[in-house]
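Customer escalation, tier 2.

The customer says the design service returned an amino acid string that "doesn't look like it belongs to this structure." They asked us to rerun it and document both sides in this ticket. The original structure tokens are below, unchanged.
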């Protein structure tokens, strides 16, 4: 029975359960990997908690079981435990102590009465994996198509659009297919590229990123392919390029639409032939690099206008991933807001701010033209500028307040009336329409923003002939 549950777990996860072993200052666990069955588990030993957290932050979704001692140095087993369960909530954590090992799994603690860790380690791990296999199999049977994850690796969001991105990343796990990520500036294209790399078979090889719009065309060829000594005036020594350094790994080409047309030809050749030459060199170098490109432009329009080569576009667009803008996934805003508040408060060693309802409404209603990057910047600004830890409306950017319908320099909602006045019904109707536009048709959110019940909102919409307005 145990073997079948282990096999089920392997099938569901796609490989052997990864066991992360986090050692202490005495190297208590250094020999532990040799006691673990390599047939059933994939052990990964790290020397301390900081390295353990680094592994979790880079590949949290691949770690199945964590082993830590309760009296570990630096942060201590307890401190590491709290951080680990936040980063990898799905992982089982085996904690060793003076009275023997005990387990944290699925929100509860379980004690193993009396077993020796080294002698019974595989039995213990098999028991953990058995539970996890049964749980995952049950969840797979019970899950509904509309159940969405709230995060994937370093990406945060529960909306349908961002979950479609999660699914595409899952599908790319065991391939090296070229990927083209498209989305507005600030949507998190590089985070998606990093997650693709961290969940792929190339995760233990280099991930190199280069912004094609930030480097002059005259230097870009050397950045990509390297150069030989004397290739040009300032080439005092041989230099390897990104294709050479990242061999075996992943090369992320951000803002690929900005690449000079002469370099588009050379990039196309590398993608087709898997080889290149350094600038000023005549030796052909083979390369094995997975390309992930990203752009905030409409490359199809650039192809039609002749700014971007159509053959290169089709080579890059093997697996297209489109990240929706934040305004089209408003249900992700509270998750991202809480995440950035916690991250920046921890970095600045400050308490979480107390936000007034006015501030909350403004933050949740804003359209964020700068997307996730703008949201992060606003949160950081709030923490820096708000005195006494209280966030009040005056400390928000003015454009945010205005677009949320709360101009901070106004004493009321209506500054000036026309000479003939305005009918109350017209004001109310326009307010309903604008609020629904702001919430992207979400009537529950609109009712909350207006301070009325959803039933009353539906009644008013019916009265004004707006009941067909789009709704989620």
């Amino acid at each position: 029975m145990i073997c079948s549950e282990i096999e089920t777990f392997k099938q569901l996860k796609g490989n052997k359960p990864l066991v992360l072993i986090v050692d202490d200052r005495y190297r208590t666990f250094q020999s532990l990997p040799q006691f673990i069955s390599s047939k059933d588990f994939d052990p990964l030993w790290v020397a301390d908690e900081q390295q353990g957290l680094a592994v979790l932050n880079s590949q949290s979704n691949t770690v199945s079981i964590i082993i830590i001692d309760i009296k570990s140095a630096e942060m201590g087993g307890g401190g590491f435990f709290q951080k680990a369960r936040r980063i990898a909530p799905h992982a089982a954590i085996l904690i060793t102590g003076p009275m023997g090992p005990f387990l944290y799994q699925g929100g509860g603690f379980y004690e193993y009465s009396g077993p020796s860790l080294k002698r019974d380690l595989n039995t213990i791990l098999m028991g953990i994996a058995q539970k996890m296999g049964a749980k995952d199999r049950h969840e797979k049977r019970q899950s509904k198509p509309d159940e969405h994850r709230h995060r994937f690796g370093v990406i945060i969001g529960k909306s349908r659009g961002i979950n479609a991105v999660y699914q595409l990343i899952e599908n790319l796990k065991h391939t090296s297919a070229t990927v083209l990520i498209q989305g507005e500036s600030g949507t998190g294209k590089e985070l998606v590229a990093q997650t693709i790399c961290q969940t792929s078979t190339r995760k233990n090889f280099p991930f190199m990123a280069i912004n094609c719009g930030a480097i002059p065309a005259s230097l870009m060829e050397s950045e990509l392919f390297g150069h030989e000594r004397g290739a040009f005036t300032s080439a005092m020594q041989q230099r390897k390029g990104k294709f050479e350094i990242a061999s075996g790994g992943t090369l992320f080409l951000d803002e690929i639409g900005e690449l000079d047309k002469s370099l588009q030809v050379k990039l196309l050749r590398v993608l087709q032939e898997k080889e290149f030459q350094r600038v000023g060199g005549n030796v052909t170098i083979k390369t094995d690099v997975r390309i992930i490109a990203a752009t905030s432009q409409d490359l199809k329009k650039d192809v039609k206008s002749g700014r971007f080569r159509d053959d290169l576009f089709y080579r890059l667009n093997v697996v297209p991933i489109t990240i929706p803008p934040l305004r089209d996934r408003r249900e992700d805003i509270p998750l991202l807001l809480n995440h950035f508040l916690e991250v920046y408060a921890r970095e600045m060693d400050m308490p979480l701010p107390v936000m007034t309802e006015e501030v909350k409404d403004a933050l949740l209603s804003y359209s964020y033209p700068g997307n996730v990057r703008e949201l992060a910047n606003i949160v950081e600004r709030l923490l820096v500028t708000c005195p006494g830890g209280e966030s009040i409306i005056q400390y928000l950017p003015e454009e945010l307040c205005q677009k949320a319908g709360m101009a901070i320099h106004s004493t009321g909602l209506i500054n000036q009336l026309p000479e003939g006045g305005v009918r109350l019904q017209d004001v109310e109707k326009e307010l309903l329409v604008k609020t629904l536009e702001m919430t992207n048709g979400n009537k529950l959110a609109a009712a909350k923003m207006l301070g009325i019940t959803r039933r009353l909102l539906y009644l008013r919409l019916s009265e004004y002939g707006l009941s067909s307005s789009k709704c989620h």
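Tier 2 assessment: The sequence is consistent with the input. The first strand starts at residue 18 and ends at 22. Residues 2-141 form a domain with the Rossmann fold fold (CATH 3.40.50.2300). Sent an explanation to the customer and offered a walkthrough call.
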